Inverse folding.
């Protein structure tokens, strides 16, 4: 089918590549405009833009799909279906109505659970045992459209946002190819989402990345994994922000935030319930280090307290 594809990050690029490999024709690719990021504040191209340029597909990056030329530009691509994956903009109804097969979205959860912007992180934070991919027909709501196809995926105990996101991207790629085949053959029968079980996955805020040591170690360990590799869980050590890359559940009891042990094997910190071994950390402006490497250049002693970064 002729498709207009909308997406920006690697999750979406994986799906676009699968669609092209399956023989679909992308007549236009939509991607978010780049934003300055990193120390040099450079605007780096997203994975979808890079793939579109490599494959010679026309690229359109409007600041808003409500822009005067957005509707006409998409209509001129004559799509049979619009495919959306991690695009990050609301689609006006006029755009949703452009293609005969409508607009379909690749969403990284088993809807109606975790509607919204951060389904992967929210599933990890909640300690969910499974998640999956939903292919749905888009409507004017936020991830509320009828379901075309769903596929489940188990969440591993050591999954983080990167590993789980990568596996969901692969599953989403095969799922969208199957869904478009069903649409083209007239076999797709979208069904309304269940009336119960809806829960939202809002964007991650900076405040959420700060570890609250009064919480249970189990919760904080999930937080570290949910925010790895970005934006990263963090704490404050002697008024210096520390990013925590990996942590492990441990046994210990003291006032929350108290350092219980500090040595080559790790940095053990008391939590509201249980304790956490910090295994890999990173100082602001520094590199990722094991706890042993970190402690050789930044002596920490039992009894010290860690606090929330400001």
């Amino acid at each position: 089918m002729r498709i207009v594809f909308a997406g920006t990050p690697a999750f979406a690029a994986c799906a676009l590549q699968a669609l092209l490999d399956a023989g679909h024709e992308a007549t236009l690719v939509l991607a978010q405009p780049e934003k300055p990021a990193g120390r040099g504040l450079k605007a780096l191209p997203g994975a979808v833009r890079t793939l579109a340029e490599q494959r010679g597909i026309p690229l359109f990056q409007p600041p808003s799909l409500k822009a005067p030329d957005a509707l006409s530009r998409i209509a001129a691509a004559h799509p049979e279906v619009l495919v959306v994956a991690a695009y990050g903009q609301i689609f006006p109804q006029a755009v949703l109505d452009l293609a005969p097969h409508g607009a379909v979205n690749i969403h990284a959860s088993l809807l109606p659970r975790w509607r919204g912007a951060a389904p992967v992180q929210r599933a990890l934070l909640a300690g969910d045992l499974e998640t999956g991919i939903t292919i749905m027909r888009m409507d004017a709501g936020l991830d509320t459209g009828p379901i075309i196809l769903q596929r489940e995926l188990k969440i591993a105990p050591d999954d983080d946002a990167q590993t789980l996101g990568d596996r969901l991207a692969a599953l989403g790629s095969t799922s969208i190819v199957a869904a478009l085949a069903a649409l083209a053959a007239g076999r797709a029968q979208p069904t309304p989402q269940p009336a119960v079980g809806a829960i939202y996955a809002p964007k991650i805020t900076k405040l959420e990345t700060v570890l609250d040591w009064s919480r249970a170690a189990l919760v904080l360990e999930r937080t570290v994994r949910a925010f790895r590799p970005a934006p990263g869980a963090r704490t404050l050590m002697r008024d210096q922000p520390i990013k925590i890359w990996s942590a492990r559940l441990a046994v210990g009891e003291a006032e929350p935030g108290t350092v219980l042990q500090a040595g080559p094997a790790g940095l053990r910190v008391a939590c509201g319930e249980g304790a956490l071994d910090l295994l890999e950390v990173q100082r602001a402006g520094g590199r990722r280090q094991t706890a042993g490497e970190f402690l050789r250049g930044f002596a920490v002693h039992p009894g010290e307290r860690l606090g929330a970064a400001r």
Remarks:
- The mean pLDDT is 94.
- The domain at 2-200 is CATH 3.40.50.170 (Rossmann fold).
